[in-house]
Amino acid sequence: MKPYELFEVLAGKTWRSIERFSRNRIHLGEDAITSNNLDALASAGPACVFLEDTRAQESTKGCDFELWIGSSHMGWRRYAVQAKKIQVSSSRYASLAHEVAGVPQIDILDTYARANRALAIYCFYNHATKPYKWNCNLPLEVEQLGCSVTPSSIVRAAIAKHGARNFTHIHSQQETLPWRCILRCPNFVSKAARGHPGWPSLAGSFHPKLPAALLRLRAQPGQISFEDQPDLFNSEIQFRPQWVGIVDVSVQGRDRG
C-alpha cells in the first residue's frame, strides 16, 4: 500500500467512526483520533516513522504533530499540524478559537511554524451532512473529508468571521482539501510544487534533506528524544509538537488488514 492510499483509508475510517460514535452517543476525542491515525501510519512499515514527546504540555505544544513528507530524491516538506474534531450535532468546530494561557492557539502554531521552517496547517476530523465544496481534482468521494487540511490563514479568517467556524464554511474555501492531497497531488509533492491555489508558498517549508535527528530516528525508531536537537527545533522558542513523523512517498508500506 502506498502512503497516500493509507491516508485515504484513514480518512474514510475517521469519517465513519465519528458518525458511529455520535450515533451511539459515545465520546470520541480528538486526541484519540490523532493517536489512532498516527499509530496506523507508524505501523505501515518503512514509509512512516513517528516519535512522541511524552513531556509535551499544552503550554509548550506548538502543534499536535509534524509531518515531514517527501523522499531523499525530491526533498522534504515540513508541515506543523493542529488537529480539530467536528461537533457532529452542530457541524461546528467548537474549539477553533482555543487559547492557551491567554494566547490564541493559532498564534502559537504560526509562531512555531515560522521558527522551524514549516507550513502551518489544520487537520479537521469530520463527519457531516451539511453542504460543502469539493476542491480536489480527483472524483468526489465525501469520506475523504474524514481528514481534511487547510492552511492556518483560512482558519484565522474563519475565527474572525461571525458564523464561519463550521464544516460548510471551512470546506467551501478552495484551499481545504482531503489530507491525502499533500502526499498525492503534484501541487505538493513534486520538486517544483507551488501548492494548491490559495495556499502559501511551499518554498519556506522545503528541506532538501532530513535533519540528522530524523535520520537517526529512521535508523533506530524510538531511540532519540526531543531534547537537545538543534538541527530539528529552533532553540529560541519553547514550543514543540507532541509527535514528529516522517512519511516517505517513495516507499511502499505493508498492506493493512
List the helices and strands and how they pair.
Blueprint lengths: L2 H21 L6 H13 L5 E5 L8 E11 L3 E11 L13 E2 L2 E2 H11 L3 E7 L21 E5 H9 L6 H4 L6 E2 L2 H4 L1 H4 L16 E2 L4 H8 L20 E9 L9
Parallel strand pairs: 2-10, 3-6
Antiparallel strand pairs: 1-10, 2-3, 3-9, 4-5, 6-7, 7-8
Shape: globular
Give the total of domains: 1
What would the average pLDDT be, to the nearest integer? Answer: 92
Into which percentage range does the β-strand content fall?
Answer: 15-25%
Number of helices: 8
Counting DSSP E segments of at least 2 residues, the number of strands comes to 10
For the termini, the CA-CA separation is 11 Å
Please identify the structural class as seen in this structure: alpha+beta
Low-confidence stretches: none
Radius of gyration based on Cα positions: 17 Å
Main sheet overview: 8 strands, mixed
Question: Summed up, what is this model?
Answer:
The protein has 257 residues and is of the alpha+beta class.
Can you walk me through this structure?
The chain has 257 residues and is of the alpha+beta class. It has one domain. Helices cover 29% and strands 22% of the residues. The chain contains 8 helices and 10 strands. It has helices at residues 3-23, 30-42, 105-115, 152-160, 167-170, 181-184, 186-189, 212-219; strands at 48-52, 61-71, 75-85, 99-100, 103-104, 119-125, 147-151, 177-178, 206-207, 240-248. Helix 1 (3-23) runs antiparallel to helix 2 (30-42). The longest helix has 21 residues, at 3-23. The model has no long low-confidence stretch (mean pLDDT 92).
